[in-house]
Structures are given as C-alpha cells and as structure tokens.
Design goal:
The complex is a heterodimer. Chain A is an all-alpha fold. In chain A, helix 1 crosses helix 2, helix 1 packs parallel to helix 3 and helix 2 packs across helix 3. The radius of gyration of chain A is 40 Å and the shape is rod-shaped. By secondary structure, chain B is mainly α. In chain B, 70% of the residues lie in helices and 0% in strands. The N and C termini of chain B lie far apart (44 Å). The chains are: A mainly alpha, B mainly alpha. Chains A and B meet through helix 1, helix 3 and helix 4 of A and helix 2, helix 3, helix 5, helix 6 and helix 8 of B.
C-alpha cells in the first residue's frame, strides 16, 4: 500500500536544535521514534544514519523501537459490534422530533378552541332565530383576542 | 491548503448532496477503524460503541461544513478524538485495570496462551499512557495516520505531536522491555 507521508520539516521539531555538525546521541535519540516511523525529512535522516553507523547503542535503540511497533501491531483488532452502521443510518434517517408544547400554551389553545366552538354555536343559533347584538359579538371576539396565554398578544 | 486527492472524495460528494447510501458506504468503510480506536482509548465496549455511533452522526451533521482540506478519514478521526478525550476527561476510572494474566487451562495450546499473555501485556502498556499520548500511538500504529494527519486529528502542532509520540513510545519501550524480561514478549 502506498502511504502518502510528508516528512515534517527539521525546524518544526520541538527537540534540541539540530545543528549541521555531527549528531550526538542526545540529538539522535530525539529523532529515533520519527525515524522508526518513517517520518524524518531527508536531511535529518541522512545525518542520523551517519550517527547510527558509528553508534551501536543508538542503532540498538532504533531496532528496539522498530520491533516495538511490530509487537504493537500483532495485537488483534477489537471486534466491531454488529449493527453499528445500521444504527447510525437509522438515527440519520429518523424524523426530527416534534416540538413539544408548553403546558401553558396547550391550555391556552384548548381554551381558545372551546371558546371558538361556543362562539360559533352561539352565533349560529343567533343567526336563525336572532342575531347577537353587534356589541355583544364584538365583546366576545375582543375577550378571546386579549387572552393572556395567546402568543403575540402581549400577554407573555 | 490543497491536499492530495482523497479516495473518498466521490462518496463524500454524494453524501453532501444528501445521499444517505453514499454516507453508509463511508460508515461501513471506517466503522472498524473508528471503533477499534475508541475501544483502545476507552477500554470498554459500551463507551466505544456509543462514541462510534456519535462520531458518525456528528460527521453526517457536519458534512456541509467539511471543507476537504484534510482527508475524510483524518476529519472523521478528529471528531472521534474530540469526543473520546472529552469523555475521558469527564470519566474517572474507579476500577483498576486488570493486569492479571489468566492461568493457562489444561487444554489450551501453549501458543494460544502465549498470544493472550502478549496481548494483555501490550494492552496494559497502552492503557497506562495518558490519553493524549495513547491517542498518538494508536493513530500512528493502528490507523496508519502520518504525523501530519495526527496533527490534524488531534488539533495539535507538529512539535506537540512529535513530543507526545516521543514520550509515549519511550514509555512503551520501558513497559515492553519489562514484559520481555519476564519472558512474556
């Protein structure tokens, strides 16, 4: 598998400043992990390899780090529980939850509906035998309009 | 910042257009990696499963805002890492890790038992790392993220990530060396 790795720049590393002189063990040790992981820029890699050619301790440390990586990778991957994808897609596809009415708003709507039904019945009866007086009609409508629980009527 | 072509670009494009089937393709592709990462971080099945689902849900919701400056995989692991580190910072572990290596049963082949010992030794060494160090190791070793990708996934600078990896790998070196001395590794 081709791995796209961009080696990081020498000056971005937080370890001691790596000079262009021969690398010492302390400088080399700071870079061994990145070298073992294939993440060193060419310039750093060349210098550390020159050091490793002359330092068996650091070379041994590099071998140990590379072996550690292999040891870590021999541990089997955890088994994925079944239905993870199914559950995710079910949640994505579920309809958005409906907005819940507050108890006060629900009660107001019931009251308005009841009043509306009463008014409709009253007006209906009054049209056939007689009509409500205009004043009474306006008063009934005004009473509904200024109910404190109805949003937008300044009662909140 | 332009990045290399991402093999998931086509599926991501379809998913962003509102095609759930395209997103499901991405979920199935990455569920093992995401779950494995979260399990190794959280050390329990319930949290790993819960956070895995949450990772993909958040990714679906945030898709319109995904600018594709990194690969989809890296971006997905960024979501998983944020969720996981937040959960770990809120959760106090009350039970100590069980480091006991089970005794070999009479009908258990030597190699199988030895593999169990190695697995426990490695998992114990990983679990002993602080979460941010553990995260860098898991992303590097098991998920094959480059250092640059780990920086994106963790929201950290290159010097921070290299420092975390340096400390983590050296701590693991000491733990694994101790296991080698005992003949486990």
């Amino acid at each position: 598998m081709l791995r796209r790795r961009k080696a990081y720049c020498e000056h971005e590393f937080s370890g001691p400043a790596v000079s262009m002189k021969t690398m010492n063990c302390k400088e080399a040790r700071n870079l061994l992990v990145a070298l073992a992981d294939g993440e060193l820029a060419d310039a750093d890699r060349q210098r550390i390899e020159e050091h490793l050619a002359k330092c068996p301790d650091c070379a041994g440390e590099l071998s140990a780090l590379a072996a550690d990586r292999q040891t870590l990778r021999t541990i089997p991957a955890p088994e994925v529980p079944p239905f993870v994808a199914t559950r995710v897609m079910a949640r994505i596809s579920a309809p958005a939850p409906r907005a819940r009415l507050s108890p006060a708003l629900a009660a107001s709507l019931v009251l308005v509906t009841a009043a509306g039904l009463w008014l409709g019945t009253a007006l209906g009866r009054s049209i056939i035998p007689q009509r409500l007086s205009e004043e009474a009609e306006h008063a009934a409508i005004a009473a509904l309009s200024f109910h404190p629980g109805i949003p937008g009527n300044g009662g909140e | 910042m332009r990045r290399n072509p991402d093999p998931d670009d086509a599926a991501v494009g379809h998913a962003r257009s509102g095609e759930p089937a395209a997103f499901e393709e991405l979920v199935r592709k990455y569920q093992a990696g995401v779950y494995g990462y979260l399990f190794r971080m959280c050390r329990n099945t319930a949290d790993a499963e819960d956070l895995s689902q949450e990772t993909f849900i958040r990714a679906w919701q945030a898709l319109p805002k995904f600018r594709q400056e990194s690969s989809f995989k890296t971006w997905l692991f960024r979501i998983a890492t944020n969720l996981c580190l937040n959960r770990l910072s809120r959760t106090k572990r009350t039970e100590p890790l069980d480091e006991t290596i089970p005794a070999r049963t009479s009908d258990e082949p030597q190699e199988v038992w030895h593999r169990k010992q190695r697995a426990i030794a490695v998992e114990t060494a990983l679990a002993a790392l602080p979460p941010d160090q553990r995260s860098t190791v898991i992303l590097s070793v098991y998920e094959d993220l480059s250092y640059e990708e780990i920086c994106t996934a963790m929201g950290k600078s290159m010097p921070s990530v290299t420092s975390l990896l340096y400390r983590a790998r050296n701590a693991l070196r000491r733990s694994l060396h101790a296991a080698q001395e005992k003949g486990i590794l």
